[in-house]
Structure formats: structure tokens, C-alpha cells
Amino acid sequence: MKENNIPQHIAIIMDGNGRWATERGRERSFGHQAGVEAVRRITSECTRLGVKYLTLYTFSTENWNRPADEISALMGLVLTSLEDEIFMKNNVRFRVIGDMKRLPEEVQKKLWETMEHTAENDAMTMVVALSYSSRWEITDAMREIVRPILQDWESGYSEKEIEERITEETISQHLNTYFMPDPDLLIRTGGELRISNYLLWQIAYSELYFCDTYWPDFDEECLHKAIESYQSRQRRFGKTEEQVEEELNK
Question: Residues with catalytic annotation?
């Protein structure tokens, strides 16, 4: 692994907690608890490597359809895991993306407290996607963009004026992730080969990495393998290989 080519933003779909627990004859909540330990390991290692943003898919809007007891256990786990001093120990800022209004009030309160407590930390930003889905996020952004246009509709807008007001940059600025760059690398654990409604707009040019390892077993070595795979690729962003080589040699 080349330490001079570390992705600045890594997004992870932390999959396999439930299957990890089931294979051990335990309740799914046991797998989620083990998954928190993996979060601690990977957060510490990403900070050490110089990653600037780590975004973790923790609970999707679709996850609200899970059994009530599992949802309750997950919400309780959010509360207890935020007591961890890993944020201050590693100088990590904490942020949340997602529809926080759907979360229990005590969870919302704890999330805001943790964000305020870690606001001045600057080694890395850990972003937790809670009650999040990309389609929800994009839909919400469209409503925010269109609302002032509709309010001023009587003043009249030409088609060109609307095009100028709704650009790719405008959309990006209204997404939950407005405060950080798009992911360089997206990792999914657990053996599934899909994106699951996660950061669909933001990963347009991200490198994708899938592994069979369940999230509770994902460790520093697994992270290094993912980064090594990322480093072996040429990121062209629509350009030719020759154009990229020319830019690198300038």
C-alpha cells in the first residue's frame, strides 16, 4: 500500500452483521454489537492513514421495515456507541446524514450533543448515515431547490433561467453531503454486489470494492487490501489513458 496515495474519502456499506451472528447461533443484535468494534478499528486506522472523511452506512430508510425489536436494539446501540471516546482520542469530528426527524428523540439529542462536542476536531470527519437513503436525499434536495422558484413563480421564469438555477452544483449543495467531497472509494462488505440506495449521486466516479468478509471481521488488513485495489486503478473521469498520463507527468 502506497501511503502517498490514500483515498481522501472512503464510504463503507457495513454489511453482514446479522449473518455473522446467525452463523454463530446468536441473535442479530449480537452481530451489530460486534460491528461497533469494527467501526472503532477502522476509524482509528483511517485516521492513522490520513483519510479525511469516512462515511458509514449505519441504518437505511428501508431498515425501518425490520422487526421492531431489532430496530430498538440498533437505536440503543447508537446511544451506547456514541459514549465512546474514540472521537476525542483520534481527533475525529462526528457528523450525521439522513432523515434524523424519524429517529427517537433521545437518539436525536445524543447525535446533536456528539456533533457539538467534536466540532473542533480536525484529523478526520466520520459521517454516519442514519435513516438515510439516496433517493430520499435527492428528493428532499429537489424540494428545497424548487420551493423558492415556486414562491417567486408569478415574477416569471424563462426556461433558460430555470436551467441556470438548477445545475449539478446546485443539487450537490442541497444534498446532505454538501460539506464534504464525493467518495474516492466505496467499500461493501458481506459478499453482496449492490449499492443499496447509498450515495447514488456522490459515487458517480467512485472506485467500487466488494469483499466477502462480514463487517464484524473487517479489520486493518482488509482495509489495506481495499486501498491497495484502489491504488492499482487509473482514475480517468472520462478522459483517455494518454490524457491522464500527460497530466501526471506535468
Answer: 15, 63
